[in-house]
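User: I've been trying to design a sequence by hand for this structure and keep getting stuck. Would you show me what you'd pick, starting by listing the structure so we're on the same page?

Assistant: Good idea, let's start from the same input. This is the structure you sent:
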């Protein structure tokens, strides 16, 4: 069959290796992860160029890199010095700020969730219950939820290249290793993982105390782009790859990837690049299991415009202001 007569897989580009810019084979075994250590080689991961907005961001990266020295080797705290603003810098209209925003800035939850706390009567300002939406407070006011006083925090954004064997939770009753052990020295503020990766899944995991951004990135309506490097226990037949591209009906609904293709030149048909927006539990593994394949390795190599570039396994880095702004535009 001539190439032009071959059936086209949904999301397939003209040449093989569509995911090669994100997926690179590991030529040497990864060293064991050392918790709490930043990447020594971290520098801004370039956002996707699939849209006009991301191209503008990429151009901004290029212009800034041409006009200043490389940030390679700088301490994470120094690179991210201007990353966020204090609550006082948000204050307007006579030195006040909306109560829901104050709560969100404290890293407790998103503003919408803060509204629910306010309406339920769980919030006190200077000892008085405030249940009216739109209420404003001063930065010097004492705001409490459940008797606990909130302290306004700077927003922190930490990107981890997660190794195998860590569960995505802030606390584990079984005392297993958690991803929080890997970022415990990233900042003094309490940060939380955005979404989750299975215990045996590798790759990019974002942490933040920015409740609004976390809510946005995990909400299905945001359609956050994610790319996975999948390795299976046997060669994936072209017909099965076409079935995945067309969509697979699982117990919880139809799953239709945005793109799927063999990695590189396609000679090893056990390595697949998969792009999708769904954040359902174990979705990639279940997708292949439904066709009789076991996933032996799963690595998230791209998340919302962020890549693993210069970020070794088990290490973390702070996002740049440009990357944070890009995430807010996703």
């Amino acid at each position: 069959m001539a190439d032009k007569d071959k059936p086209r897989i949904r999301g397939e580009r003209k040449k093989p290796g569509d995911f090669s810019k994100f997926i690179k084979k590991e030529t040497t075994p990864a060293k064991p992860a050392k918790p709490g250590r930043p990447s020594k080689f971290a520098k801004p991961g370039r956002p996707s160029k699939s849209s006009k907005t991301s191209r503008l961001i990429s151009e901004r990266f290029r212009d800034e890199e041409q006009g200043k020295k490389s940030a390679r080797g700088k301490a994470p705290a120094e690179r991210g010095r201007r990353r966020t603003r204090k609550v006082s810098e948000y204050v307007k209209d006579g030195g006040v700020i909306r109560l829901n925003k104050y709560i969100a800035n404290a890293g407790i939850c998103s503003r919408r969730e803060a509204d629910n706390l306010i309406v339920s009567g769980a919030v006190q300002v200077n000892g008085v219950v405030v249940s009216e939406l739109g209420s404003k407070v001063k930065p010097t006011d004492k705001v409490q939820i459940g008797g606990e006083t909130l302290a306004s925090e700077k927003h922190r954004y930490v990107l981890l290249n997660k190794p195998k064997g860590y569960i995505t939770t802030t606390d584990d009753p079984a005392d297993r290793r958690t991803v929080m052990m890997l970022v415990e020295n990233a900042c003094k503020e309490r940060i939380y993982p955005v979404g989750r990766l299975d215990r045996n899944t590798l790759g990019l995991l974002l942490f933040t105390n920015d409740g609004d951004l976390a809510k946005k990135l995990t909400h299905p309506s945001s359609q956050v782009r994610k790319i996975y490097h999948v390795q299976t226990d046997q060669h994936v037949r072209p017909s099965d790859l076409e079935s995945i591209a067309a969509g697979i009906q699982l117990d919880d609904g139809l799953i239709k990837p945005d793109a799927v293709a063999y990695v590189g030149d396609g000679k090893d048909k056990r390595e697949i690049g998969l792009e999708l927006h769904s954040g359902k539990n174990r979705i990639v593994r279940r997708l292949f299991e439904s066709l009789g394949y076991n996933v032996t390795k799963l690595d998230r190599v791209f998340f919302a415009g962020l890549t693993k570039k210069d970020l070794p396994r088990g290490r973390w880095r702070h996002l740049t202001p440009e990357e944070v702004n890009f995430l807010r535009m996703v």
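That's my pick for every position. To get oriented when you compare it with your attempt: Residues 1-17, 26-33, 41-94 have pLDDT under 50 and may be disordered. The first helix runs from residue 52 to 67.
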